[in-house]
Amino acid sequence: MVHFLRNKNVTIIMVFALLLLSVYSIISFKLNLGSSFYDSTALVLELSETRATDNVRAEVNNLVRLSGIEKEGLASFHIYFQNLTLADKAKLDSNLPQLFPSLISSNYFAYQPVREQLIEERIMIVTSILSFMAMVYAVFKIKNVGLTRLEAINFILNELVIVAFMFIVLSGFIALSGQLGLIMDFPYFTMTLSALFIILAFELYYLFKFQVTAREQKKYDLTQIETKITTLYWPEFMFLLSITIVVFFIPWLVVDVNLAISSLQILVSILLSAYSFFVLRAHYNKIELINLPVIKKWKFLHRNW
Amino acid sequence: MKRSFFNLLLWLVISVFLFTIAFPTITLNINGENLRLKGWDPKDVNTNSVFQEFTFLPSLDLQGGQLATLNVDMENVPVEERDNKLKEVREIIYFRLLKTNPGYFEIHSSSDAASQTYQLHLKLPEKINEDFLNLLITPANLTFWVEDSEALAALDENEAVSDPFAGRKASSLTNDDIESVNVISDSRCYFSDPSTPRNFCLMLTFKPESKIDFLDALYASPTGQTPLLMVVDGIPIAVQAMGQFYSGSQPDRELMIYPGITDSWIATSVLGAIVSDRSLSTNVTISNMDTLEPLLGLNTLSNIKISLFAAVIASAVLLYIYFRKRSVSAILALVLFVIYDIALMKVFNLMLDLPLITGFMASLITFMFFIIFLLYRIRTYSKGGLGDEELFEVWEATKKNYRDLTLLVIIGAFVVSLMAPIFVINFYNGFGFGIIIGLFIFYFPLKHILGLFFNRDEKWSIF
């Protein structure tokens, strides 16, 4: 299986297929944001006897897909809907008395949450600054390992492209899960943060291994280093992967259904990290992104980094 | 990296001490009686301690809280302006709450034009004090009353004692003239007896353009016997503190106020919050107050605790299967990491929500990555155990990489705390605390543990 996946043609087809699907998914589906981000319709149900929240959620969800539910006191429920139509309202109104015989009242409200100001802009700024810092860190981690400046630039660019590929595929998966009906609220995005963290953690792992292996090589040859890392460290990598699955993915499966579904992002990021370690780098790291003869003539790029 | 019994004993004592803080609350039923086991808090030692508890703050998503529903009276507001008015009221109450610093809270609005119902929903992870909430939703029309020399001359003694407004007139100062309000502790904040100042007072700063009006009000009392009176919604609630003197030539825009309410930080800050912003132009009343179930489900927190505990045990088992007897140092480091990190987060009273837990897990994974690097390096270095210098070299190389990462995380914390949304900040809190604790373990206890188990000259050596 691994040999099949490591085949050059299969890799090229897979990478392009994943990229195309992800970009299509991002552009077409976008995000299915929940009631914390958009105004919605709130249905306040007041019952005369207590019911479990999960039970009410399931009953209402069978009629109209809800985006959130809160239980106030013992028998009052605030149920949130995105884009509730008049037909949905009619369906709810006609079925709620049968579903909940102890129903005292049901009222609809236009619900407006207080949103954090400029949330997208702030996320962009924080991401940009942290990415810049991570790049500076990576640049200094490969100092004095026997690379020239041009090789170092090429290595960093290659790694950036690999990380970008993983981010795009993960984003595509997120958009697709939204299209499949998953409501994205803060718990969902907390799992997204965890998934991004895992991609970066395994990137950091590769960087350290690169640092150690490159130092041991007498002459810099990226393909040789890559082969050596995969050959020498694959048991260690698999072990780390297992630990990550045990600590970061499995616990969510037994906690709550919504969290379990959201945590699939973590699984996707773990699979992507494994794919880039075993397959992607084997082919991609041979590519020199900066190989223009004009640039190669610059002497200062051939000094040791 | 030789064995030092003194150091090992010291870290054992520290670890036991931190374990008593990190210990989770467990209720046991023995012979029909509930026995509650929990970690210790400063208040168990000293009831007057500034820090009362070593505990996680509750969060709405995992522990639930309270929901207060507020009705906003829109009867006198034109129909087309009601939605905007509701947003305005929500904003004013939001900022008032923010200034009282109640920790995490949410406030949302809902409306139903057909039934003319306009509501605000305030969610707090902790119990809401109804008295303070009632004060927070008052209109807070602010006026300052100054001495009226003509009325004062005609005043009889009984009237002066019974009526606080007697001999006074309203100045032109209102809410709109105030720039900021701060809660302060200052020995000048007394009313008549300098030896009994209040613990908490208010410092009002007027806007630069209101300075002339402020000075007019300040100097309106020619005898100095009738200080400025602060009136909120027609009720006299505070007076000018008598300990604050003005030079006369350069008086500033600040006024120290002596409130006539309970002398506590929370009461004074609530008063400060309502006078520091616009007044509410509509009537807001509490409609209902009730408990709110955890937003992520009733048993989610206990399930997370159990599954995380199982995950840590499973990782220890995996470590043992993979590294066999060499895993003992890694498992010890893992246990120390969990104890130290939980203890530190409890000491700092972090809010126990989903992002914090995932941040903690991220730091745990990072720490384990480095511990596994270290074990690999030790294993590949020598099959027959390491000498003192060799072991130091291996430890130093891994520690250096971890230290650099910690520095990066600390610098990142400045950016995140300034700009990131709240759930990212909470994730980063969990992550950052763990990373720093990991560095601490690398620098101190781990050094001694490695010396004990991997130094070939030690009798405890497991090679």
What is the gist of this entry?
The complex is a heterodimer of chains A (305) and B (463). Chain A is α+β, with helices and mostly antiparallel strands and 305 residues long. Helix content of chain A is 66%, strand content 10%.
Describe the structure.
Chain A is an alpha+beta fold. In chain A, strand 2 and strand 3 (76-81) form a beta hairpin. The two termini of chain A are 38 Å apart. Chain A has helices at 2-6, 8-29, 53-63, 86-99, 119-141, 149-179, 186-216, 222-253, 257-262, 264-284, 293-296; strands at 40-47, 68-72, 76-81, 103-112. Chain A is built from 11 helices and 4 strands, in the order H-H-E-H-E-E-H-E-H-H-H-H-H-H-H. A 4-stranded antiparallel beta sheet of chain A has the order 2-3-1-4, with helices on one face. Chain A has 2 domains: 2-32 and 117-302, Multidrug efflux transporter AcrB transmembrane fold; 40-111, Lrp/AsnC effector binding domain/regulation of amino acid metabolism (RAM) domain (Alpha-Beta Plaits), CATH 3.30.70. In chain A, helix 2 packs across helix 6, helix 6 runs antiparallel to helix 10 (264-284) and helix 8 packs antiparallel against helix 10. Chain B folds into 2 domains: 5-22 and 297-454, Multidrug efflux transporter AcrB transmembrane fold, CATH 1.20.1640.10; 65-292, no CATH class. Chain B contains 15 helices and 13 strands. Chain B has helices at residues 5-22, 42-45, 60-63, 82-100, 130-136, 149-153, 157-162, 211-218, 265-275, 300-323, 327-347, 354-381, 388-419, 422-443, 445-454, and strands spanning 26-30, 33-37, 65-72, 106-112, 117-124, 142-147, 168-170, 178-184, 201-206, 229-232, 235-240, 254-259, 284-292. The longest helix of chain B is centred in the last third of the chain and has 32 residues, at 388-419. The two termini of chain B are 16 Å apart. In chain B, 39% of the residues are buried. The mean pLDDT of chain B is 87. Classes of the chains: A alpha+beta (305), B alpha+beta (463). At the A-B interface, strand 2, strand 4, helix 5, helix 7 and helix 8 of A face helix 4, strand 4, strand 5, strand 13 and helix 10 of B.
